Amino acid sequence: MFELLKAGGILMVPIVACSILALAIILERFWTLRESRIAPEHTINELWRWIKKKELNSKKLKVLQGSSPLGRILAGGLMNAKHGREIMKESIEHEASQVIHELERFLNPLGTVATITPLLGLLGTVIGMIKVFAEIQVAGVGNAGNLAGGISEALITTAAGLSVAIPALICHRYFIRRVDALVVNMEQEAIKLVEVVHGDREIDVEGA
Hints:
Blueprint: H1 2-7, H2 12-32, H3 35-38, H4 41-52, H5 58-67, H6 69-78, H7 85-103, H8 107-139, H9 144-197
Helix pairs in contact: 2-8, 2-9, 5-6, 6-7, 6-9, 7-9, 8-9
Main location: membrane
Subcellular location: Cell membrane; Membrane
Family: Belongs to the exbB/tolQ family.
């Protein structure tokens, strides 16, 4: 593997660095964007039980706030529920914007890796072909070994760049869709909470 990287030339260094960064982000996001961590079902079920039994108090709100990102959003709304529907909704939206920002963390760098690694590979291709033509100009086409070295460098960097970019792009798209799905789920629960608190909706008996 080291010989292969060495044959690819100096541009293999940033490509390998990008691959390490992409792998770290992918593993971290897979761990972080779990539904059981972001919007656990037991959190909302427990909240409905507290509301139904009129056991909701400041202590339980703090527990809810620290339980999960969804709990943080719902607690933010409940803390201001007494000020009316609109203030409650604004509080939920404020907390939700911060949570969404955290969910999208590192996705821009991952998208950047997916974009620049093919360009680095292309640059390696260009440099490799420049070396090939420079060798032809100096020694002609008789030295096949030197020509093969330049062509090999060009092909290796191109393959390496694409090998990093393709999975990075796939994971970037997957995580964006994952965040969207989580946000929709949390939005539905927040709307339901506003309607329940202000008497426009009954608590689901099964959920409670």
